[in-house]
């Protein structure tokens, strides 16, 4: 029998991770968790990454900002090539960047639908495709972690495009895992619950909605970016080498309720 997995299996020293949407919120929290585990970080996003870069570097890791607007068609190729150019290789992709639009389904507009699908699903696929090509070219496999949502399992309220995109992202995760597991590429997802991010600001400032959400979370609080740290390090490390196609909820028990 093989020896049990020790803490060394979670060590990411020498690895390079590209985290999209790493300037703030969940992306920043995951980037710092990966840096704490030893990874160098390519932080991709539309806005300034100074805070994230400084925090990664304070942990003794290399960091690079990759300007990236995922509404642009060429963004996936540019993000992957930018990470490799800046840090020499790529081992981990965290597909975190996402946007949300809220409106009644009867009034939901085509532009809002298309923008959410472009960023949350289409760009995520082509980032994964480009990263996988990079992993295969380098040899040695790689890790892809897609940031899904509890709405990958539920319909939500007034967010039809977001629910559709995040449900599609979970299906995509399974499809890519089926194709790439044999190539040494692990494709998995994390499904965050209701967390303190810019995307949930409208819910948190609506007293009635906030009470209703908190009343259903067994943990009794909104999630914080650091709550995803353990899950993202696990799915990015050798500790998850035989884990393919899962969605790991990090939701304070929301889906169990």
Keywords summarizing the entry:
Rossmann fold, 7 strands, about 40% helix, about 260 residues, alpha/beta, 7-stranded parallel β-sheet
Average pLDDT taken over every residue: 95
Give the structural class: alpha/beta
Are there runs of 5+ residues with pLDDT below 50, and where? Answer: none
Note the total helix count. Answer: 8
Largest β-sheet summary: 7 strands, parallel
Strand order of the largest sheet: 3-2-1-4-5-6-7
Span of the ends, CA to CA: 38 Å
Order of helices and strands: EHEHEHEHEHEHHHE
> How large is the radius of gyration?
18 Å
How many domains in all?
A: 1
Looking at the structure, the CATH topology is: Rossmann fold
- Give the tally of β-strands: 7
Q: Identify the CATH class.
A: Alpha Beta
Taken from the alpha-carbon principal axes, the silhouette is globular
Strand % is 5-15%
Query: In CATH, what is the homologous superfamily?
Result: NAD(P)-binding Rossmann-like Domain
How would you characterize the overall build of this protein?
- The protein is α/β, with parallel strands linked by helices and 257 residues long.
- The protein has a single domain (10-247), classed as Rossmann fold.
- It has helices spanning 25-36, 50-58, 75-87, 110-138, 160-180, 201-204, 207-216, 229-236, and strands spanning 16-20, 40-45, 63-67, 92-95, 142-147, 185-192, 247-250.
- Helix 4 (110-138) packs parallel to helix 5 (160-180).
- The model has no long low-confidence stretch (mean pLDDT 95).
């Amino acid at each position: 029998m093989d020896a049990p997995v020790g803490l060394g299996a979670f060590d990411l020293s020498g690895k390079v991770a590209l985290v999209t949407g790493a300037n703030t919120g969940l992306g920043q929290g995951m980037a710092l968790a990966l840096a704490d585990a030893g990874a160098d970080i390519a932080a991709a996003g539309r806005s300034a990454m100074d805070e994230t870069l400084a925090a990664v570097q304070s942990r003794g890791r290399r960091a690079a900002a990759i300007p990236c607007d995922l509404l642009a068609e060429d963004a996936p190729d540019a993000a992957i090539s930018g990470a490799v150019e800046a840090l020499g290789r790529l081992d981990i992709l965290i597909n975190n960047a996402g946007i949300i639009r809220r409106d009644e389904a009867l009034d939901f507009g085509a532009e809002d639908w298309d923008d959410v699908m472009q960023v949350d699903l289409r760009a995520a696929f082509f980032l994964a495709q480009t990263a996988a090509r990079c992993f295969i070219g380098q040899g040695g496999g790689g890790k892809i972690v897609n940031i899904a949502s509890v709405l990958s399992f539920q319909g939500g309220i007034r967010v039809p495009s977001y629910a559709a995109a995040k449900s599609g992202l979970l299906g995509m995760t399974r499809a890519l895992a089926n194709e790439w597991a044999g190539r040494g590429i692990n494709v998995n997802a994390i499904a965050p619950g209701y967390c303190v991010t810019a995307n949930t600001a409208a819910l948190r400032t609506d007293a009635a909605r906030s009470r209703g959400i908190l009343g259903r979370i067994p943990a009794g609080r909104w999630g914080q970016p650091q709550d995803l740290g353990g899950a993202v390090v696990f799915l990015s490390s050798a500790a998850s080498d035989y884990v393919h196609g899962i969605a790991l909820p990090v939701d304070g028990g929301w889906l169990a309720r």
